[in-house]
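Technical note accompanying the year-one report. For the benefit of new consortium partners, we illustrate the data format agreed upon in the data management plan: each record pairs a sequence with a structure-token string. No post-processing was applied to the example shown here.
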Amino acid sequence: MSAPGMPEKPHRRWMWPLLVVSLALNLLVAGVIIGALMRGDGERPPGAARSLIGEPFVRALDEDDRRAFLREMVGNRDRLRANRADLRARLEALLSAIAAEDFDRARVAAILAEQRQLAVRRQDIGETLLLDRLEGMSVEERRGYAERLERAFRRRPRD
């Protein structure tokens, strides 16, 4: 409602949807650009593979070995799923222990130790899968893998 004697401003109901669409498009473009920059020069392995052994180790495999590694990972999905469920349960216990009225340092330390052991077991699975791949390679294939792995570690930003 406008003041007496003032002309009434036209309602611009179309403005909010336009602003929302504009914002969405800007975020989409920014996401595409950021995603392209983060991806680098090659395709990233799935998150589960990265958490098993580390992205550089999976990425340095040639395409056929990477596919075989991922197939073997899928073959271990029951073990990995159980491990992930255990990790999730430990995280929930950790959050609860941290938020408790009385902080129990020993309890939090024990939960962190359990999480570490679960993560080590998960990495053991990944290392076994990688060792199986490496064992099946020829000397030339292993040397090529070593060169790609070295390049991957040289490219990685240091903290």
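Partners are asked to follow this layout when depositing records. The chain has a mean pLDDT of 76.
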